[in-house]
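Note to self: the last two entries modelled the partners one at a time, which told us nothing about the interface. This time every component goes in together.
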Amino acid sequence: MAPVDPKTPGDTPQPETAGEAPAVLVKDLLFRWPKGSFRLKVDSFEVKAGERVFISGPSGCGKSTFLGLIAGILKPSGGRIAIDGQNLAEKSGPQRDRLRGDKIGFIFQQFNLVPYLNVLDNVLLPCRFSAERNRRAAQVAGTAAKAAGELIERLGLGGDLMDRPVSFLSVGQQQRVAAARALMGRPPLLVADEPTSALDADLRLAFLRLLAQECRETGSALLFVSHDRSLAGELDRAVGFGNLNAEPDNSDSASSGPASSDRPGESPDQSAISGGLVDAGGAS
Amino acid sequence: MSRFATLVGLAVKSAWNRRLTLSLIVLSVSLATVLLVGLERVRGQVRTAFVQAISGTDLVVGARGSQIQIVLYAVFHLGGATNNIGWDSAQKLAARPEVAWTIPLSMGDSHAGYPVVATDGTFFERFRYRRDQALKLAKGRAFGDVFEVVLGSEVAAKLGYDLGQSLALRHGLGQVGPDHADKPFEVVGVLAPTGSPVDRSLYINLASMEAIHIDWRGGAPIRGFSISAERARNMNLTPKSVTAVLVGLKNRRDVFALQREIQSAPGEALSAVMPGVALDQLWRLLGSGEKVLWLVSVLVTATGLMGLISSVLAGLGERRRELAILRSVGARPFDILTLLALESLALTLAGVLIGLAVLAILVAALGPAISGSYGLAIELSAPTAREALLSLAIVAAGFLAGLVPAVRAYFLSLGDGLSVTV
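The predicted structure of the combined assembly is written out below.
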């Protein structure tokens, strides 16, 4: 099934320059915790520039570890993991921190916001730590603060909410602020880690759609992690993380490995792409 | 905005957000500051008052003895001299070409436990204390006639004496003993507070001292013989001896030469003491009490800073989420360390500034009262170099204390990454 995706990583030489480089490119990635037996092994995984990918998987299957590697918090034991063409495996800790600030917007499950900053300051936070994102935000609107204001407006949080402490916001509003922050300065990649699990069922789909639409606007790739596979059909493709992790000694993930093919009918792309990943895993 | 400015902004906002919890920390730091800097100011003033109990006097001359003993009786009027100086020696000293002025002092009597000092009019003109301060009369005038007395401020205040009050002197320095009730004195003046031993003394002229002892021999009244005050007044009241002489020079450079000369001169055995040097020595001897106070204040400061460490550490658990968010937007673990260290720094800085402000208010409110009753110049002024240094030391200690939670946060955020499992 691999040929379905003609741009299987490894087939093509990877450009190191930003622009059309894949948002995420993983090749023969290996990670071992210094203590303990947990190992993560991903032979091949790619999120193309602007592509929106849904990843599902049960807890304990290594998702968090994988996201930690993408974020550059963890350093791979082997292989290659490139964000926007820059290989994290070759970079030092501070370089990885900088790359994360420049290239990735994050949305977490909940408590996404810095409690002592108001809405605007929370949204502006990435621009404070990343000159690159500050510059890109300013390119569009003139100043980063203006860009933040527009973004907040578009996400339906405008008006008097802007200067409010974030503790005044509902969970749904907080997640939208988090989304605005992640989108600030149009990072090449957005990582949303279970961003909807604290939301009511009727809000989840609306949030995902909003996020997907904004990513299309900004051109950011989206890596949307959730165990709620009813949302999978909204994005370009879906991947089962159990299949992604090729390390056999993680019994948890092995048992739930076929999870992604539970409802193959939901998205026409879904089975095919996750199948490709299964193939990649099987090759090890 | 630079990254450091970002971190400063975050630290301040974060601290402000938890101001209720942190205000206690700030309070304890400011209390420590009030104690440490306040103590330093009072200590400085007390030391100044002590070491400059006498100023402008180049030499204190007494009968041969230790310099501490001479300073004790000539400056503080404590204890007695083993020997007196003959009046002719005192006169010879005054006549030396390098000497500008002399103040003869004769001691040995007391009133209600306060020493009585016999001197002459030069005392009011020439005596200086604390950086060249001259004596001022709060009321009345200097003594002129015999049997007139001028009171130090504390004597007048404690005993409730006013002008016109009649009092009797007691022979010797004890509370009991024969007195000179037959020759009462009249209060003609009260001196303004000086914060020096002058406040605790009574001043009469040398002739009065001679007059009250005119019918005495060997420290006791001559039995069956007395001369009335009126008769004494008209007798020859030139003193035969004095206890000490304060000497002011025309040129300070002569002080060592004159000191050597006085001590080695043939005739009466005299000692000449440079009061500043002797007072410094004496302060070092007596100053150990301040070290205890100092230790207590340092401990209070340490307690305050430990409170800072423990409360910032305790708050860290709740803030791991927040630190993970900062990491997610590109903060390095070192940024987290900086953030926490800055926060502790901000807290300590706030505490010290508040402490200094409180101290200023206290000084402004209580200073005049202290000045009035103790003669200490506790007044509103810019911090001295030592006080500024002390304040900086507290801030530095606070910063160092803040490194404990900061380093902890560094390792927490290194381990937590973006996902906190608490």
